[in-house]
């Protein structure tokens, strides 16, 4: 599978910068395909690191001739809507504000206090900590704590 080959090529490059590869995807288009590589690190990732990983991967893809024809390469970090599903996601974004959509349709927001044995700890704005079984969730994504943002002095 081409995605696996690309993952094999990009992983050591990303690791050199202390970055984790989250996903590699291919999209075919009319004449030009698109290779998207999602990377991130605890505390975020700056555009200079994204550019360096992109240049390194582009060279490797050309040398290895992994993709036939023209393609566009995009190395990017995930947006706020990237779902937290694995232990690494909860570790990477521990301390970040998240939105939890429960299977019953209820939505909660709070600080991600970590995931242990399939149970996520969430500290809500009122300071209460709730334990939420991942099996009871439909989706968990990062969010913006507008009260915290508006309280900052710039």
Describe this structure in words.
This protein is an alpha+beta fold and 154 residues long. The chain has 2 domains: 2-76, GMP Synthetase, Chain A, domain 3; 87-148, Roll (SH3 type barrels), CATH 2.30.30. 29% of the residues lie in helices and 36% in strands. The chain has helices spanning 2-16, 47-64, 87-92, 146-151; strands spanning 20-27, 32-40, 70-76, 97-102, 107-116, 119-123, 129-133, 137-142. Strands 7-6-5-4-8 form a 5-stranded antiparallel beta sheet. The longest helix has 18 residues, at 47-64. The model has no long low-confidence stretch (mean pLDDT 92).
Low-confidence stretches: none
Per the CATH scheme, the topology name of the largest domain is GMP Synthetase, Chain A, domain 3
> How many beta strands in the DSSP annotation?
8
Helix amount = 25-40%
Number of helical segments with 4 or more residues: 4
**Main beta sheet:** 5 strands, antiparallel
Return the string of H and E elements.
Answer: HEEHEHEEEEEH
Kindly name the structural category.
alpha+beta
- In the sheet with the most strands, the strands line up as 7-6-5-4-8
Strand content: 35-45%
| Mean of pLDDT | 92
> Shape from CA axes?
elongated
């Amino acid at each position: 599978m081409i995605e696996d080959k690309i993952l094999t090529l990009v992983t050591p490059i990303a690791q050199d910068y202390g970055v984790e590869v989250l996903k590699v995807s291919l999209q075919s288009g009319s004449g030009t395909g698109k290779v998207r590589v999602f990377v991130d690190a605890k505390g975020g990732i700056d555009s200079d690191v994204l550019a360096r990983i992109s240049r390194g991967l582009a060279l490797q893809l050309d040398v290895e001739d992994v993709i036939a024809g023209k393609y566009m390469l995009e190395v990017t970090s995930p947006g706020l809507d990237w779902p937290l599903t694995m232990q690494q996601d909860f570790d990477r974004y521990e301390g970040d504000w998240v939105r939890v959509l429960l299977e019953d349709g209820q939505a909660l927001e709070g600080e991600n206090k970590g995931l242990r044995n399939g149970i996520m700890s969430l500290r809500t704005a009122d300071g209460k900590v709730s334990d939420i079984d991942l099996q009871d969730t439909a989706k968990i994504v990062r969010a913006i704590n507008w009260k915290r943002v508006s309280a900052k002095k710039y």
